[in-house]
Amino acid sequence: MLDAIVIGAGHAGLATAYLLKQQGYSNVIVLEADTQVGARWRKRYSGLTLFTSRQYSQLPGLAMSGKQHGYPSNIEFADYLETYKRNFDIQVEFNRNVVQLNKIGETFCIECHDGSCYNSRMVFVCTGAFANPRIPSWRKSLAESIACYTPESLGRAHLKSKKENWLVVGDGASGRQIARFLAAENRVYLSCGKPRTLLPQTIFNRDIFYWLDKLGLNTLYKQHWLARRIRNKDPFPGNGISNQFLMSDGIIFKERFNEQQIDDKGQVIIDNQAIDNIVFAIGYSNSFEWLKSFVSFDYAGQINLNDGNTDTSGLYILSQPWLTSRGSGLILGIEHDFKLLKLLK
Length: 345
Known about the structure:
By secondary structure, the chain is an alpha/beta fold. It contains 9 helices and 20 strands.
C-alpha cells in the first residue's frame, strides 16, 4: 500500500510529493488527469507571464534558472515543473482522472476513469485553484457567429486577430493582460466588475512580494483583521495593466456586462460596434463532488477547507485561495501550508 497519493501534477502536487519524501514518506505517487506535468500552464494564452518573479515562483529544493527578478512565462514555468519532477524522481501516473474516492478502515481507495485503482493511507488533493473557468449563463444566448474563449482556450487567437471587435469580460490580472495583447491590432472593450486595487510591481527596486514577505503579509492568517481586509480588496500587481496604462493603449472600459445587452438576434452591440469575439475571464471554480462523502460544505455550497485538514483523517486539500493566508493560492505558499497539515505517522 502507498504512503500517499497526490492528485494533480501541477506545482502544488509536485511540491507536496517532494515535501512528503523529505518527511520520510518514500512510497508516493502523483495522479495526473492530463498527459504531462504542468499541462494546464501550457494550455493558457500565448504571452502569459506570471506576476510573481522567479525567486517567488520556485518550489522547495530547486531554484529557477534565469534572472531571479525577472518574470517567467507560462511555458518556462511548465518546463521548470518538468525539470522538478525529473530532478527529484517524482513518480507521476498520467491519464489518471480521479472519479471516486472510498475509504475502507484506514485505507483510501481511489478509482480513476479508466478503471485503475490505487490504495493509500493518505490522499492530498492538489488540483489547484484554476480547475474550471467560469462561463456565464448568458453564453447560451449569444449568436453562433460570436467566438467565445476563456484564458485556457484562447491559445494564440489573440495574436492572429486583426481589426476585430473584442469584449473581455472580467478585469482581473488575466483579463487585463489579454486585453492589452489584443489592443495592438483590435478594438477592445474591457467589462469591469468590482473596484480593483492594483499594487506596484516594485517598491524601491524590490519586488512587491519581497516587501509582503518581509512584512509577513503573505502568511498572515486569514482570520486576522488585516488579512480579511486584504482579502476583501483582493489586490494584485498592476505593472503595465493599470487603468491608465490600458486606456493609453486604446482599451475602452465598460461597466459590468449583463444579458440585457444581448439583442434578440444574439448579437452584442457596444458603442454602435458589433462584437466579434468575447473572452470570459471571470474566475474559476472547482468540482469537489467526488469528495462529498468525506468533507463538509458551507451554506453557499463551498467546501470547508479547514486549513487543508479535512473532516476525514488522512485526507488533505492544498493550493486553494485563502486556505490559510494570502499566499495559499500562490506558488510561494505551498510549503507554508504543507507544514500546517496534521500528517499521519
